[in-house]
Amino acid sequence: MYKNILLGVDTHLKNEKALKEVSKLAGEDTVVTIFNVIGEQDAQASIKAGTHLNELTDKRSEELEKTRSILDDYGISYDQIIVRGNPKDELVKHANSGKYEIVVLSNRKAESQKKFVLGSVSHKVAKRATIPVLIVK
Question: What is the pTM assigned to this prediction?
Fold first, then answer.
């Protein structure tokens, strides 16, 4: 069982399968860090539309409510981090911070026409993280 799990969450994806895997990896003392990145494109588009970054962060937090609820149902403790930046870089930076034992990600693979095995974020994290990475499809 892992004590500190980094869960990369894309609010545009269904994350139920990843959360189920997290429940298998978690023990009594486990803390899952729900990690979401506001990409520069989203941030700039919101600012141009008159939305302050704090409002965008609040909106993202609302979108993560389902994830928090599922973790509550599993009885797993969690905290939440929402940062602005490049999702690939921010996930790798946090994964390699020494605070976590494993990273869990959903595999985007959103467009079936593309012939990539992994999404670009999961691929970069798997390649550059110094801790184990579980990619759930």
Answer: 0.88
